[in-house]
Every structure is written in C-alpha cells, then in structure tokens.
Amino acid sequence: MVLDPPTMTSILHRPLPKPPSALRRGPFREGRFSSPLHSAWVAARLGRMLGITFGVCFLTGLYSHFLQHQPHWAPWLTSRPVGLYRFTQGLHVATGLASIPLLLAKLWTVYPKLWEWPPARSLSHAVERGSLFLLVAGSGFQLVTGLMNVVGWYAFKFFFTPAHYWTAYITIGAMLIHIGTKLTVARQALSDE
Amino acid sequence: MRRLLFLPGVALIVWGFAGLFTTARHPRPLPWLTFFLGANVLTDAVVAPVVVVAGVVVARLVGARWRGYVTGGLIISGVVLLVGLPMARGYGLRSDNPSILPLDYTRGLALTLALVWVGVALVAVVSSVRERLLRPPRRSDHALKASTK
Amino acid sequence: MSEAAGRGLSRRGFLNAVGAAAGVITVATIGETVGPLSRLSPLAPRRASVGPQHLPVNKSGAGARVEQSAVDPTYRLVVGSLSLSVGDLQSLPQHAAILPIACVEGWSAVGHWSGIRLRDLLDRAGIDHDRWVRVESLERSGLYVTSEVSPTHARDPLTLLALRLGGEPLALDHGYPCRLIGPNRPGVLQTKWVRRVVAL
Fold it and tell me: Does residue C43 lie in a domain region?
C-alpha cells in the first residue's frame, strides 16, 4: 500500500501514547539537570565547531581514501603539490584529536535530552532520535578508533581503514539530518549574545 | 532546508551501511558493533555520570570564587588524560619497531598537566586582579548587573 | 567573567575551557608532523627524527618477515622483462629527491632519498607512458603488499625506486634493497622491499 504524502506526514507527526508516569524515575525526573551550561546557546556553538571539524575530517579523509584507492577516472589526483598529502593527513589527524573535547562537551551539554520525557512524542520524533543515535555512535566510533590507530593500538578485530571509511558516511549522513532538524533553533541561539 | 539535508543524509547513511558490510575487507558485524555501541555506552553511561559527580565534588570542595577556574582546569586535564593515557600505558608499543611511541609519555603527561594548571592559575590570578582594578566591588553594581541579565 | 567568579563556570568560560582543551591536545601532539614544534609536543606518538636512519617506520623488516628474502644474494628486481641484481641497480643512473613519508596515522617526516627514477626503469623495460603499474613487495601478506602507481606518479621525475636514504644504503626497516618513494603519496603506498614492477 502506498500512502499519499499528506497521510504520511500526519502519521509521522501523530502523538504517540504517553508512557505511564510511574516510569519517570531517576534522571527522567523533571529538573534533574540544573546546570545553566545545558543550554541551546552552548550546544549551538559547540555544534558549529563540530560541524566544521567533522567537515574537515570528512573531506581530508575522502582525499586520503581516493589517493590510496585511486580510481582510474581520477587523473586530477596528481603527484603535486609534493607535500599536499602530508598537509591534508596531518590536518585530518590534528582536527580529529581536537574534536575529542568538542564532542565530549557537546554530548554533556545535551545530556538531559537523553532523558527526555516522553522518550518519543511521535514517529518523526522517534526517527529523529534514531538518527541522533547513529550520529553519537558514529562520532564516538570515528574518534575512538582514530585515536587508537594514531597510537598504534590495534585492540579491535577489524581492519581500521575500511571500517573508519564507511562509518564516516554513516556519521556525516546522520550529522546532515541533525543539522537540518536543529537549524532553526541553532540559528536563534547563535544570534543570542 | 530541513528536507534539503534530510535526503542526502539518509542517502549517505544507506551508502555507509551498504559499503560497511559488502565491500572488500569489510569488518565483521559484531566487532564493528562492539565499538559502534561501545562508544555510545561509554559516553552516556561512564563519561557523563563521572562528569556529573566531579561537578558535585568540585561544588562541595571549592569555594565559589575559584570554582570556575578549577572546573575549567579539570575539563582540560580530563581530555589530556583521555588522549595521553593510551600512550603512557604503551598500548601501541612493538618490540620490533622502536620508532612507534618513542617518548616517555608518563613524563609527557605529567608535564602537560603541570603546564595546564600553571596556565589555569595564571588566568585565575590575572582575571581576578583585573576585575578588582576595573570594577571596585559595590553592591549597587552587582544588583544592576543582575537585573540586566 | 564575573559570573565565573560568582557561581562556577559561565557559558563563555565553559566554551573557553573546551577550546583550551582542544588547543592543548593539538599542541601536545602536532610535533609528529610539524617538525619544528616537536619539542612542544610531549604527547606526539612519533618524532620525525626517531627511527632507523633518523626516520620513523610503520612496519619493520622483522614485522614484514623479509629479513631473509631482502638480503638473499639471489634477489632480483623484475621490471617487465628486465631482471636486475642489486649491483645492476647501483650501476644505473642515480637521482636524488627530498620527499616526505606521510603516514595515514598523521605523522610525517622528510627523507633525502636517492635511487633510480621509476620512469627510467619503465622506459628500459619498454612500458608505455600511459600505463598504470603495480609495485609488489617481498612481503607476503598484509593490506599493503602491493600498490598501484598512476601514470602521472610513475612518470614524475621525483618518483624513485630508492636505494639510499641520507647517503647510506636503505636500512632493512626502510625497505632494503629498494623501495618506492614518490611525491604526494600516502606512506602505505610507498612500497618497501620491492621485488617486481608490472604494467597493468
């Protein structure tokens, strides 16, 4: 059965039944997180920085991947400038390492959102949180495996390069969705002094 | 804008998962999933609660005047430890290749942390001196600021 | 800032602390690729001047299990129809190139290499200018035992099959008897212990 778009939209946004409030315990309770740092003002600024650093990592990473697996249709991946790869890869690793505090701070800033009540208001809200899960897991995966690779600590049972390469697409894809959903809120928060 | 980013986002995620489990030398699902979920669990169930507890401890032990600086110093120290500990523990060391991790990272870690706290102390002293010089503490001044916030 | 003095970290103060953390991490590690800053980087996983012949390596000869095959007197480099001993290689015209090893792990260091231009060898073997070539190592297994070289890289006058580093014969860990070294190429593609070059 194919649903026409208006029906789809209404299904996506229809409120889901509320879970029994008896389940609202521990960190789910209202007002559990009191620090003023859990704010859109902070989150938007950290998010903007992460958008930039992840963008840099993604592009330099793609360049590294395509230099290593050079497609025969890409003659523009040339041997000059001599030290270009040295620069892009140094930048890739330095930017990735600098992203570690940014990501941790961002996750902490929005930590109360993890304990949002009700956990899913509507289907579209559930989908959005699902993509956020991919974003958080993917970002963590990239930074953790990246750091481990930099220090030569191969405690994972997979080849680093293909796993890091494909997980990058998942992470950046989820990041685009996240930027899309938060754009209005973030813009407002960024214009606030 | 929302929709403009939504479609490429979904496409990239699908492309990523498709490549992840079909291409040459792809990771086996379970080891990959361990790290994918592990990172999530680590930040939400370990790092965040530790930070919350640290915040409470600092609030109890450190006077309001210096609390901000101590918190800042702890944030920097925590990240430095996170990055430096795998090196200090020598997780990447290989007996056949002395050019991997060639430095004394325990010393490096101690040195970096010492410099961080010297920096924090400097910032704290300089800004409190500056504050005292620029704004003589007056009750009315504070009240005015609070009302404009 | 007065908020910071009053009741813990302000929002601005929090951002500054996080930014400072990113800065400290960057400075503490960047020396692995920006040589002049290496003294400021006590947490750099590599140091550009530490390694055999003062240059780091990722995989040692022992790790690649080429300790015997690389020094075997019957070693020959095969390029197309050519078969060359180490002596033959030394008697060919030698060229120098100052090129970095730039590793995917982020470290990089410059070496003074000398050896035979790859394009000279390809010309001798009668391999056409527009052909891709594959460089194969004595190393038996691993992700990077071979690498493909595009025509632009293969014909670049700076792309060498290097025999020497810093004026001395290559150390085993750097790929003795000869290794590929080319401009703007990830370190994993600078194949060491080369035994064969084939046209694709």
Answer: no
